[in-house]
Specification:
single chain; about 575 residues; alpha/beta; Rossmann fold; 4 domains; seven-stranded parallel β-sheet; 21 helices; 18 strands; binds adenosine monophosphate; Nucleotide-bd_a/b_plait_sf; hydrolase activity; helicase
């Protein structure tokens, strides 16, 4: 086993970021920039426009947020009251979920700069947003529909905007926001800096880029694809789990896989420390390894792993660089890595010298696309498997007990001394019953942890077609049967064309108020006086009760499960 000194590649400090931002990143435990950050931050700091192809999980939020905060602060101190409090930065995102997430990230990065960041999205009471806008903000993170609403009311002034980001642009187009985006961009200052991030680059995105970006720098995270054949031959699989169940899923996977030694990769130091603690609490012998540790501490950790006192190493990429651990059988990505080359790097630690290696990735549903990108770039197959159930786990534990007994029967010459026990019991009990009791004791003595928590199955987000449906589409037929092809039901909303209802109002209200994402919504039929919208079966009740609480176009229409819920039937 070799432990090299940590080899620091180009770090955040080399990217000309200011001390306040560097401090925030250290505080968050980010050890080094992800590839997209390395490529996007310098040109953005120079004021260039940028067209980036990147999916969730690549670190794209920080890639635009850090330069945005720095540039805005350079032009006019963030948080200062004298600028009239008009926003200088605008980030447009497709969903409420993302608006909150991006705004929280920007708030964390910009805390020491005093940045005031406000998320605004449909479904949230407008009064609260109005008051916050009045008090003054530096950056608004908004869904296009609600942004346009505010622009119409004169409460979101655009003339002071210096930088605009369109995040997940393809998804915004898919959700029918094309016109809203055009309308917003038309009203912004000509000399603004514009950034567009999209997971795919269909022609419509190119069109927007041509119209609204000035000689943009283009970046794709897949560019540094490893050469064919470079990726090692390793059994690769992935589990789709929601964040809350990740520790449980990791435990389950470890129990079923029973690795000799495993390394679990996390993104940040905080995550490493937290996960190490959680896994130790769950009875695993885990050790943390990250860039914040000294060489001596690292050596100690490695010797515990080597001697078998620990069987799980939880590490960041930087800390694990240069590690060569002979007995390693499993690499586990606790998150999807930020770039394909990082994935290749990580999994290359197993499967050496002809030994069998296993690479397992825990992905959140929204990271499924990144998984696909990695598959394509590495030209290898990552099988998405079901998280083992409690029943699977029990079966596996029994299998381990059976194997241990079999080994004892075949190899142990010292069984005879127990004969007296069996024979005296045999006077009273059936031989099979005696054997069963003995197996039970043996099984329980392995200390198999009682992990009875069932981990809910979540479907990956479906792949989006490269070309979205027409902008004016009322039939979103291509999105039927999402959630892994599950059944769809229709919801009746008592407001339609005559009330000015547009597909994006319905999508905005649903994604804003429920956990249903835009992609899971099926066909939307807008008639004169009502609208029918297809929703995954399991989410209908949630959608109905959420829509009843919200207003659509200023009204509270009747909302119910469609009585005539025959598939695709016209009313
Ligand atoms: P995103 O692709 O922007 O959704 O980011 C994915 C995740 O990676 C988020 O949880 C970020 O906090 C995290 N992240 C972003 N940049 C870094 C970095 N340089 N080091 C570690 N984690 C990061």
């Amino acid at each position: 086993m070799v432990v090299n000194e940590i080899d620091e590649g180009p770090g955040f400090a080399d990217l000309a970021l200011g001390p306040e931002l560097l401090k925030a990143l250290t505080g968050l435990g980010y050890e080094e920039p992800t590839p997209i950050q390395r490529e996007a931050i310098p040109p953005l700091l120079e004021g260039r426009d940028l067209l980036g192809q990147a999916a969730t999980g690549t670190g794209k939020t920080a890639a635009f947020a850090l330069p945005m905060l720095q540039r805005l602060h350079g032009a006019h101190p963030l948080g200062a009251e004298d600028g009239g409090g008009e926003p200088a930065g605008l980030v447009l995102v497709p969903t409420r979920e993302l608006a909150v997430q991006v705004s929280e990230a920007m708030h964390r990065y910009g805390r020491d700069l005093g940045a005031r960041v406000l998320p605004i999205y449909g479904g949230q009471p407008i009064g609260r947003q109005l008051r916050a806008l009045e008090r003054g903000v530096d950056v608004v993170v908004a869904t296009p529909g609600r942004a346009l609403d505010h622009i119409g009311r004169g409460t979101l002034p655009l003339k002071g905007l210096r930088m605009i980001v369109l995040d997940e642009a393809d998804e915004m187009l898919d959700m029918g926001f094309a016109d809203d985006i055009e309308a917003i961009l038309q009203d912004t200052p000509e000399d603004r800096q514009t950034v567009l991030f999209s997971a795919t680059m269909p022609p419509r995105i190119d069109g927007i880029a041509r119209r609204h970006l000035r000689q943009p720098v283009r970046i794709r995270i897949e560019r540094e694809a490893p050469a064919a054949g470079e990726a090692p031959l390793i059994r690769q699989s992935a589990y789709i789990v929601s964040r809350a169940y990740k520790p449980a899923a990791l435990g389950r996977v470890l129990d079923v896989e029973a690795p000799t030694a495993a390394i679990v990769f996390c993104r940040t130091r905080e995550e490493v420390d937290q996960l190490t603690e959680t896994m130790n609490g769950r009875g695993y012998r885990a050790e943390a390894l990250h860039g914040g540790m000294g060489q001596e501490q690292r050596d100690r950790v490695m010797s515990r792993l080597r001697s078998g006192t620990a069987d799980l190493l939880v590490a960041t990429d930087v800390a694990a660089r240069g590690l060569d651990i002979e007995q390693l059988t499993h690499v586990i990505n606790y998150d999807v890595p930020s770039a394909p080359e990082s994935y290749v790097h990580r999994i290359g630690r197993v499967g050496r010298a002809g030994r069998e290696g296993v690479a397992i990735t825990l992905a959140e549903p929204r990271e499924h696309r990144m998984l696909k990108t990695i598959e394509r770039v590495t030209r290898s197959r990552i099988t998405v498997e079901k998280v083992p159930t409690v029943a699977d786990l029990r079966a596996r534990r029994l299998e381990l007990t059976r194997a241990a007994l079999q080994e004892s029967l075949m190899e142990d010459g010292d069984l005879d001394r127990f004969r007296v026990v069996v024979e005296t019991l045999a006077d009273e009990f059936d031989l099979v019953a005696i054997a069963l009791a003995a197996v039970k004791l043996a099984h329980e003595s392995t200390g198999a942890a009682a992990d009875e928590e069932e981990i809910p199955e979540v479907a990956p987000r479906a792949q989006r077609p490269e070309r979205g449906p027409r902008d004016d589409r009322h039939g979103r037929d291509d999105r039927r049967g999402r959630r892994g092809g599950g059944a769809m039901s229709r919801v009746f909303v008592g407001a339609g064309r005559s009330a000015g209802v547009r597909p994006q109002d319905i999508v905005g209200a649903i994604t804003g108020e429920t956990r249903v994402s835009g992609r899971e919504i099926g066909a939307i039929e807008i008639a004169d006086r009502f609208t029918l919208v297809e929703i995954p079966d399991g989410a209908v009740d949630e959608v109905v009760s959420a829509l009843r609480r919200t207003t659509i176009k200023g009204k509270k229409p009747i909302v119910r499960r469609d009585r005539d819920d025959a598939p695709r039937g016209r009313r």
